[in-house]
Fold this sequence. Notes:
This protein has helices at about 1-10, 60-65, 95-125, 135-145, and strands at about 15, 20-25, 30-45, 45-50, 60, 75-85.
Amino acid sequence: MSHLLDHVGDRPVRHFGDGEVLIAEGETDTPLFVLSDGRLLVERDGQRIAMVDQPGAVLGEISMLLGVPATASVRAVEGASVHVVDAADAGIIDDAAVMGDVARLLAARLQAMVTYLVDVKQQYADASGHLGLVDDVLGQLTFGVAGDVESGSERDPEPYY
């Protein structure tokens, strides 16, 4: 991920204090952020997803690439500095080096998720209900088309794709 810092080093840097929100879930037109230093908490529906502290980590890429509202909230923990790539700067999508770094990041996240779901599938192979849906989820993650995914939660009836 640190390679990405080399590609966005000329972008503006913004500093966020403890508890300051970078991205609010559901927000539209959010910029792409690349962490320079500090720690960030990522949450979805009030549930902690990750604590991010690795320089070069990317946030806001799903919204930017898919053109959807932010799928999670991100806020600074212990302060953070990020390079800001505004949504208006769509030219970054044409930058092969930057998009290569983002693609590798997304591929690594997908691999981790699929590995986890395969483990869940092995542990709960005979389960029904939501755990029985792991086969469907794995199929969608590995070979599905984003438009085919539908949310299974009544709290969130619209798919994110």
